[in-house]
Structures are given as C-alpha cells and as structure tokens.
Amino acid sequence: MTVLHDFCSGCISNDTAMITRDKFDVLPAVEKVHTVFEFGEEIDRRVNGDLRIKLYLVNDFYVELFYNATRLQIGRMISLSLEEVAELYNDHIDISDVFSA
After folding, report:
1. What's the rounded Cα separation, in Å, for the pair 27 and 16?
2. For the chain, which residues make up each domain, given as ranges?
3. Neighbours of 24 (CB within 10 A)
4. Torsion angle of C-alpha atoms 10, 13, 15, 21, degrees rounded to 10
5. In angstroms, rounded to a whole number, what is the distance separating the alpha carbons of residues 25 and 15?
6. Are 36 and 66 in contact (CB under 8 A)?
7. Kind and range of the H or E run holding 67
8. 1-50 tens-digit pLDDT
9. Closest CA to 64 of 48, 83, 85
10. Which of 31, 70, 78, 90 could form a disulfide with 27 if both were Cys (CB 3.0 to 4.6 A apart)?
11. d(Cα 75, Cα 52) in Å, to the nearest integer?
C-alpha cells in the first residue's frame, strides 16, 4: 500500500486509479478531491453566480466539483452518469458532428 501524502493516509495509488463511481461516492471528501485532481481530466466548466463548476471525467464516470469563488473553497463534489452530464451540459457540448457522418 503506497500512501500518497500525509493528510490522506487512505489514498492509495493503485486502488484509486481504477476507482468506480460507487466507491468514489463513499470516499471522504479529501480523498474525493485527491482522486479528481490526480486521475480526472477536466472536460468542461460553467459558472452559476459565485460558483465555478468544473466537470471532470474519472475512469468511466463524471464528477462535478463546485468551487465557491467568494469563500475560496470547494463546496461539494458529485458523481454523474453520462446521461446526467448530457442533460446538464447540453448547451455546452456540441455533438452535431457525430450525426453528420
């Protein structure tokens, strides 16, 4: 077991790299943050008032990270399915080229 840093003794490199959505959902907040920053790929972002909401792809699921720009802190993180992402980001993501072939 390889500990990645002092503040998160439960973050394990091999286990976290292949994490599932169900396992992600039960992680403590600090481990969720670590997992998203270490293994996620930022694919979109949106703004809602003081919130900066970033969408990440982590393995085969998505995570929204809500950052409060006024308080300078992460407020919450939620995992999403592809269907949920399509509904939330339909104005941001252009897939029209998929249908033009």
Report:
1. 10
2. 13-99
3. 20
4. 90
5. 14
6. no
7. strand 61-68
8. 333 444 444 444 555 568 999 999 999 999 999 999 999 999 999 899 99
9. 85
10. 31
11. 10
